[in-house]
Specification:
about 290 residues; mainly alpha; two-stranded antiparallel ribbon; globular
């Protein structure tokens, strides 16, 4: 009777427990499909409300190029099939963040992004955020063919609120919200400083942070787990330095400053972090032997 009762209790409580664990797993950092879902929601909402994309066909080309090349390079370089969630984010980011009347820049930008993952590596890791590096290269090398997304949400605050709530929740679940928050606070502080230096109003200097380009930047690019340093303190420091570099570049007249700032600061910080950690690991046997 006791066993039967226990089984009944377990049976009666098993389904809710499974449902709860499924929900937790869905919003956990192990679910690599959550960020692609979130960025797709940004795309759909932005396109429906503001015409965010140049065209769906160009974005589809960027996504397809990214995913196909990721499959090819992963098999050739690593010898196994990759999880395509990262390649999808790269492709859709390219499709959203660049503007061109031609199709080929979308394919080329995605190709550069995926190629950089497998070519520009140090001690087994790629140093650059793929889409950020590719977009920066396109904007610098062929500005006559490519521009960056410049659409704003306008006076309608609801898309911004929804994106921020979802983005904050997802980055918090994957333990990266402190990076976004540090960058946001730093950006606001440096905006106040820029307004004093250049004589513009504070609202004019801080306004870009409300645009869709910055939503992708602060929730996906600077929080990329593969290209951020390990420690939380280091991640916050890098976010602050990216915001500082962005202010310097903006004062120098670079309108695409956030992309360039991350391209400069991110790889240097990651290379230093990898080097320091490799030294600490290699010193452990020596210390043990000495003891």
């Amino acid at each position: 009777m006791i066993r039967a009762g226990t089984a009944a209790v377990t049976a009666s409580t098993g389904a809710p427990e499974r449902r709860t664990s499924a929900i937790v797993r869905f919003f956990s950092k192990e679910n690599r499909y959550l960020p692609p879902l979130f960025i797709t929601l940004i795309l759909v909402a932005g396109q429906a409300k503001f015409g965010l994309l140049e065209s769906f066909s160009r974005t589809a080309l960027a996504i397809a190029t990214s995913m196909v090349l990721d499959l090819v390079f992963a098999r050739l370089v690593i010898g196994k099939w990759p999880n395509l969630a990262s390649a999808y984010i790269t492709g859709i980011s390219v499709g959203i963040l660049i503007r061109s009347p031609a199709f080929w820049p979308y394919a080329l930008c995605s190709a550069l992004a995926i190629t950089s993952k497998y070519v520009i590596r140090w001690r087994g890791r790629h140093l650059f955020n793929p889409s950020n590096l590719a977009i920066s290269a396109m904007l610098i090398l062929i500005p006559e063919y490519v521009a960056a997304l410049s659409i704003q949400w306008g006076n309608d605050v609801w898309p911004l609120i929804i994106v921020w709530i979802l983005g904050a929740f997802i980055t918090w679940r994957v333990r990266r919200f402190h990076i976004t928050l540090t960058y946001l606070i730093s950006f606001i502080g440096f905006s106040a400083l820029r307004s004093v230096i250049v004589g513009d109003s504070f609202l004019a200097e801080v306004a870009p942070i409300t645009g869709p380009m910055y939503q992708l930047f602060i929730f996906f690019m600077i929080t990329d787990p593969r290209t951020t340093v390990k420690s939380m303190r280091g991640q916050c420091l890098v976010a602050f330095l990216v915001a500082a570099m962005e202010m310097i570049l903006r004062l120098a007249g670079y309108i695409n400053a956030p992309f360039y700032a991350l391209t400069i600061v991110g790889p240097i910080a990651l290379a230093i972090d990898i080097w320091r950690r490799s030294r600490s690991v290699s010193s452990v046997p020596v210390a043990a032997g000495a003891a």
